[in-house]
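Chain entry —
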Amino acid sequence: MLLTRNRINRDVSAVTARPTLRHVVFFSAKDKADIPAIVEGLQLLSAIPHSTVFEVRQNNHRDALSSEVDVIVYAEFDSAEALSAYKADPLYEASIKAVRPLRDMRIAADF
């Protein structure tokens, strides 16, 4: 995407032709002391083989207007079927059991 003065020029075919499905999940902790345990529980997901990219990161909280998000999961998948297989893996349920009691908010987006 090329930003120019008051205009955005973009190659739409380059955006829509991308073969990956991106999966982003934002979490907030009920208690900030539990953030390391949330990260650890979400790291279980890294052993699931269906993603092509997988990251769990603690938010640096550098945006002065938003402090709600504490932890982010970012993953890429080759297809919706790969994302479904990822969510069907027993480690996915184990991660939910570890993280759900510690988290307040969870917001997911797939694009």
Remarks:
- The chain has one domain: 18-110.
- Residues 1-7 have pLDDT under 50 and may be disordered.
- The two ends are 17 Å apart (CA to CA).
